[in-house]
Amino acid sequence: MEQVGFLSAMPINEIVFFINKVVVAGLIIGSVYALGAVGLTLVWGILRFANFAHGDLMTLGAFIAFVLTMVMPGLGAAVGLPTAFVVMPIAMAITALITIGLDKAFYQPLRKTNPKPITLVIASFGVMLMLQGLIRLIWGTAPRNMYVTPKEIYRIPFAGKDIIITEPQLLLIVVTVVAIVALHLFLTRSRTGKAMRAMSDNADLARISGISTDKVVRTTWIIAGSLAAAAGTLLAMDVSLKPDLSFNILIPIVAAMIVGGIGQPYGAISGGLLVGFTETVAVFNWSILLRPLKPHLPDWIELPASIAFVPTEYKIVVPFVILVAVLIWRPNGIFKGKVL
Amino acid sequence: MSILKMTDVHAGYGGANILNGVNMEIGAHEIGVIVGPNGAGKSTSLKALFGLLTVSEGSVVFDGKDVTNAKPENLVRGGLSFVPQEFNVFPAMTVRENLEMGAYVRKDDYRHLIEKMFEYFPPLRDKQKQPAGELSGGQRQMVAIGRALMMEPKLLLLDEPTAGLSPRYMGEIFERVIAINASGVGILMVEQNARQALAIAHKGFVLAGGRNSFTDTGQALLDNPEVAESFLGGGAKH
Ligand SMILES: Nc1ncnc2c1ncn2[C@@H]1O[C@H](COP(=O)(O)OP(=O)(O)O)[C@@H](O)[C@H]1O
Ligand SMILES: [Mg+2]
């Protein structure tokens, strides 16, 4: 009998394929959803409305990073990072300022009238349409490349094969981890962070305690706007920059927020990753993983070319399915959010 | 000198006025007690003097300054603290964080005050890392009062601090209120347990229909047969 090594007995090709197509891809899109959903859920926690313009803040942030990249294309080479990434903090700051401006112009005057939450939601719908129009008016509809130089691609050797991850994907994962840790420290250690949690918990009592609610609102917009810009920029670096970049991911982001428990930042992060992974698994073509079984199958079984839970065109239903499934199991979301 | 003087205060929630001329005056370090039937405007009076409602007529003077329609934030800084009747803790935050939020506007090191609250309310010490929403009603009330005391206020407003509590906790809260007052903090308190509350009150205010029906010392109100008849459920007892 021939000795067969453990590794050579494993279908390495298929495993690496699975890691690349599901684990890496799910982590990437999950991180984008997580960064988006955190901002959305923080705004909900403080202002009690779902901000539909949040997706377009991501796109806007990416376009601002794009403009900055075009203005200073050589900046990245000087430090050995992509230019778009180097200018990202500036884009985040500008987006945060715009977000505060939008609040002053549209939401703050409404808040003074003690509106129903739906009024603010509709207003955010208006802001969303306005941003979409402005973005198309200024930058057109053609896809843009955020990279001035070719993208780095990292190959991590794994049992003789390569796990492939691109530079923007790696940066996205790093930024997501840093953002989560920073947000956690901010919310649990800093005075303003605690005041934010207090206001989200009981806004009237926060006011009674002397917490400046205006300052908390401003801080919330700054965090939401800058995280949106970071997520948008990194996503555009990974794929390409188009005006509908993040409008298409608004639904999964909203689902991620609700799944995690509305108003719960940690919930939004887990919700984002959950929705991201489920989506990737759902559209994954399992046929390729089943290929090694082919010699052992009787002749009359033919493997179809494509076996996926959900055809790619219907990917958009996945967040809804997760939403329903999680809410049946936990009506207030994974982290027990506020009841709507 | 009086620490608080409300003169002919009118206020409401946007519609018709609920308060139609409320007058209250209490001295520094005194206990004032507000009693009256449900819907009389007791809670509304506290909210109006704390700047949570717009006072349309009349004035509020606190610690020698006119604070009519002042912002809660500034009142807190000036030494006025308020414990509302309901939703008076941050349920998802720990007991310790609740106390810290009470000291939000302080710029100094207030850790010794947290320690002092644990001395006032010993059951809270072991629960300091627990979310306040998980505590029993009586302990939540302790957190709520503790939060308000973190500013070392000159005057503490308490809205029905014993509502819904077991007799054991009720006695404990009353005891604490007396101790807090003895340490130099003025108290203005709304209470359903009118007899018990008036017994410890320097000043008592009987509200009905958004205005004062009777205003006197606590003991005088207890002895007043008319008050006893209409508001204390039966003749004066001794
Ligand atoms: N938030 C509110 N909005 C409108 N009306 C209110 C509000 N809160 C209380 N009221 C009304 O004001 C009146 C006085 O209420 P309140 O001051 O709470 O009475 P109580 O003396 O029992 O504390 C009641 O008629 C009540 O219905
Ligand atoms: Mg009341």
From TrEMBL, chain B:
SUPFAM superfamilies linked to this entry: P-loop containing nucleoside triphosphate hydrolases (SSF52540)
GO MF annotation, one: branched-chain amino acid transmembrane transporter activity
Domain of life: Bacteria
Gene3D superfamilies noted in UniProt: P-loop containing nucleotide triphosphate hydrolases
PROSITE patterns: ABC_TRANSPORTER_1, ABC_TRANSPORTER_2
Domain called ABC transporter: residue spans: 4-234
A Gene Ontology BP annotation from the UniProt entry: L-amino acid transport
This protein's UniProt keywords: Amino-acid transport, ATP-binding, Nucleotide-binding, Transport
CDD domains on file: ABC_TM1139_LivF_branched
Name of this chain's protein: ABC transporter ATP-binding protein
